[in-house]
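call fold target=Acyltransferase
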Amino acid sequence: MGMVRRDTTIAVMRAIGLMLIILAHVSPPNILFQLRTFDVPMMLFVSGMSYFIAAKKNVSLVPYVISRFKRLVLPAWIFITIFFICIFVFNPEGFSNVRKLSVVVSSYALNGFGYFWIIRIFLIIAVLSPFFVKITDGSNARALIITIAMLLLASFMSLTGKGNGIVGKLLEQIVIPTLSYGAAFIIGYKWLSLQDRDRIKVFIISAFVCLAFLMAGYIIKGTFSYPQDFKYPPSLYFIAYSFAVSIPIYFIISKVQINSYCGSSILLFISSNTIWIYLWHIPIVEYFNRNDSEVNFVLKYAVAFFIPALIVSVQVYLVKNAIIRNEKMKFLNVFRG
């Protein structure tokens, strides 16, 4: 696959991942909610592919961590500041339960009221990316063994290690997600160096794991277990499902030629500005969730996606023009991405 096609495939998959994450927040029908649950692992899978293309094998750790902090955390903190200033100044209806110091502090800690955990996961995996590459570089078989071991360990911990204390919270919010989403990143990193036959093997194994969990759930409980039930914290079934869906998506997108310049430009814009589009969708979906729960989910989705995309397009335009006029304004690049 050529470099341009690879970049396009990654951009489309990243855009799809973002759109599905937003879909989850507008209360879609349960079947859609369950089907789209592969979105976050697919984003980490795509991050692995991007890391491979960038050929970042011997990075300087401190500068790299600082760059990831600027890319992920600073935009989140800027948004959180704007969000809570608006909440405290305008006191919108239905938002009284976030007007608490504990919620504000936990939001800056990338926990908050249900949205910032994704940023925390992206940051952890980004910081650990050089380590993941180091331990899995070279042999694909070794990478697969390490990945399976990480997922099995995460699953074991999710069954036995959760609790209400500090250790339990660390396991649930840091350790287990790092293992599971790290596995998704590793598979993504190795993906572009695999032959199609090996990629198909990964798909078959993932699909088999999903089928095994479905059957086990039905035999034990008399009902099917959904991958979403294994998301908090993420474990083997949840990640296997994400691979079983993401891999066919990869094959389809990699074979499709996007001839429309407008279409490819839009997808590239979305892919290049996922952080800010994601951040700006938060107040919109929160407003719907707190005030207009009866609004059709399709309408809510359209508003929750297109308004943030419009805000970010204006944001990017203003930043670009400010930097063109004065190079000292490059610090404004934090509002892009």
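return ok
Residues 268-337 form one domain. The chain has 13 helices and no strands.
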